[in-house]
Amino acid sequence: MNFDFQKDPEFIRKLKKGDLRIFEKILFLYEKEIFRHIRRLVPRQQDAEDLTQETFIKVYRHIGTLDPTKGMKSWIYKIATNTAYDWFRKNKRNRELFIIDNAGSPFETIDEHSSYTYQERATTKDLQDALERIKPVYKSILLLFYEEGLKYGEIAEILSLPLNTVKTHIRRAKSALVKEFQKNNG
After folding, report:
1. How far apart are the first and last CA of the chain?
2. Are 51 and 87 in contact (CB under 8 A)?
3. N or C: fewer beta carbons within 10 Å in the chain?
4. Which whole number is the average pLDDT over 159-176?
5. Could you give all domains of the chain from N- to C-terminal order, each with its CATH number?
6. Mean of per-residue pLDDT scores for the chain
């Protein structure tokens, strides 16, 4: 689908009225992307799948609040990120040792490339471990900026933060990530 939703008022009108065919198009366009975003935030594949499903349930339920002048992608990312944050808050008291499992998922995942050398894999694993140890908001901002390639303004909209706060968080997140990485790789 190569058209801008914001320039098609009929599409937005049908979507806001609950047209399932239109919603399916939205789901088709963003499901894998949102899953990848959530998967980078949470440690287990199954949790990411559940949170992705929960995100799109919320999108459907709250479609009436969509502001057609703002980006739909940013709005969906905001819901996904808040859903993950809610999950973190709920599970903060019940910390578990998670085993990362990527096999057998109906969702597309990012796998390590076999061309990586052992050192590159170790560095990637160490970096991922360090990323898991920083504050969730810092992790989210770094992933939105570096992995998703979003601009500061888009991140600000997704996380409901002022632009300067996003810039500050990115700087602090980088610093926190370096400190965590150096703790184990000194």
Report:
1. 48
2. yes
3. C
4. 89
5. 1-93 (1.10.1740.10), 117-186 (1.10.10.10)
6. 76
- For residue 4, the model assigns a pLDDT of 55
Q: Tell me the whole-structure pTM to 2 decimals.
A: 0.60
Six token digits for residue 108: 């597309």
72-91 vs 20-41: helix axis angle to the nearest 10? 50
Structure tokens at 63: 């479609």
- What sign does the dihedral 5-8-12-14 (CA atoms) show? negative
What's the full length of the chain, in residues? Answer: 186
Q: What is the DSSP string of 28-48?
A: HHHHHHHHHHHHHHSS-HHHH
Phi-psi region of 67 (alpha: psi -120 to 50; beta: other; left: phi over 0): beta
Residue 80 has a CB neighbour count (10 Å cut-off) of 26
pLDDT tens for residues 85-116? Answer: 888 878 764 443 333 333 333 333 333 333 44
